[in-house]
Amino acid sequence: MARNEEKAQSMLNRFITMKQEEKRKPKERRPYLASECRDLAEADRWRSEILREIGAKVAEIQNEGLGEHRLRDLNDEINKLLRERMHWEKRIVELGGQNYALKGAPKMTDLDGNIVDIPNPSGRGPGYRYFGAAKKLPGVRELFEKPPEVRKRRNRYEIYKRIDASYYGYRDDEDGVLEKLEGPAEEEMRTQATEEWKRIEQVRREALKTVQSGEVATAGAPSIAAAQVLFEEEEDVVEEERRLEQEREERERGKESEFVVHVPLPDEKEIEKMVLEKKKRDLLSKYTSEGLLEEQEEAKEMLNIHR
User: Fold this and answer.
1) How many angstroms separate the CA atoms of 90 and 84, rounded?
2) What average pLDDT does the chain have?
3) Exposed, middle or buried: residue 279 (CB in 10 Å: 0-12, 13-18, 19+)?
4) Can you give the three-state secondary structure of the chain, one letter per residue?
5) What angle, 0 to 180 degrees and rounded to 10, lies between the N-to-C axes of helices 40-60 and 68-94?
6) pLDDT for the residue 34
7) Is 30:46 a contact under the CB 8 Å cutoff?
8) Where in or outside the cell (predicted)?
9) Which residues make Cβ contacts (< 8 Å) with residue 110, sequence separation at least 6?
10) Taking CA 218 as the corner, what is the angle to CA 216 and CA 224, rounded to the nearest 5 degrees?
11) What are 161-194's pLDDT values in tens digits?
């Protein structure tokens, strides 16, 4: 049995291959301008062909070992195909087809996968993009690097602007944590204070009974406690008397320091009369001469008029 290569080289197989190529139509080239296409199906087909070419070139540009010049050429070709695809999509819309642009334009990402907006980084046209290993080329890597953040020192106004009620501890009770911690401690303090008050009241009653009955307490712990309570009460009384004496001395000292006027002061009517007389003198001095004023004064003295 002959091998496959020998079969392909046989006369009959070559004749059949030649007839098939004659029947096949010549390969059709894509129109240079999208406006030359008049058929919607043809426009859709050419757009699909452009997408396949873009996919093949994007897969090829991922190889970092192609060299700088080849990577730049591939990136230029991909951007050219993207612009051509945009023209075909506009033509499809003009022919009444689907608007592919509304589905979302391709996003541009940096080395970390973050979406960045670089409308025209290299000056080669609007919307120029970098793909695959082209992002790591010299001069291109710097475009995707974020500048270091300069930490600005806050001024006093910005510091005070962030201060609220939580800064002063007014909202510490809202989370309920402080209440859980303070609850048992508060109960314990209240219990201790109540027990201490009851003990002091009991000792005070015993001391009062002892004083009222006139009995002499025998040696022991209760008599010492009663004496201590009576001594504390006596100290409180002495302290209260001392405080009252100091307040009385301060009041007397304040009375002595009061300012006493020994000259009679004018009342409101006299003050108004003096102001009116001054206004009259000002008006007379403004509209009359000194000679006329002297004549008026002489006339008043001769007529014995005193105002």
Assistant:
1) 10
2) 77
3) exposed
4) CCCHHHHHCCHHHHHHHHHHHHHCCCCCCCCCCHHHCCCHHHHHHHHHHHHHHHHHHHHHCCCHHHCHHHHHHHHHHHHHHHHHHHHHHHHHHHCCCCCHHHHCCCCCECCCCCECCCCCCCCCCCCCCCCHHHHHCCCCHHHHCCCCCCCCCCCHHHHHHCCCCCCCCCCCCCCCHHHHHHHHHHHHHHHHHHHHHHHHHHHHHHHHHHHHHCCCCCCCHHHHHHHHHHHHHHHHHHHHHHHHHHHHHHHHHHHHCCCCCCCCCCCHHHHHHHHHHHHHHHHHHHHCCHHHHHHHHHHHHHHCCCC
5) 160
6) 85
7) yes
8) Nucleus
9) 116, 135, 144
10) 95
11) 888 888 887 777 777 777 888 888 899 999 999 9
Share of the chain above pLDDT 70, in %: 74
Among candidates 44, 46, 54, 52, which has minimal Cα distance to 29? 46
When pLDDT is cut at 50, 70 and 90, the band that residue 60 belongs to is very high
| Distance from the first to the final alpha carbon of the chain | 160
User: Half-sphere exposure of residue 23, counting CA atoms within 13 Å on the CB side?
Assistant: 6
| Locus of tokens 């009375």 | 255
Could you tell me what percent of the chain has a pLDDT over 90? 11
For residue 124, is pLDDT > 50?
no
Tokens of 203: 């000792």
CB 72, CB 134: distance < 8 Å = yes
What are the backbone dihedrals phi and psi of residue 286, each rounded to the nearest 5 degrees, phi first?
Answer: -80, -35
State both tokens at 79. Answer: 């951007």
pLDDT of residue 254: 66
If you search the block for the tokens 């043809």, which residue do you land on? 42
What are the pLDDT digits (tens) for 236-286? 767 877 888 888 888 777 665 555 556 677 788 888 888 888 888 887 777
**Amino acid, res. 3:** R
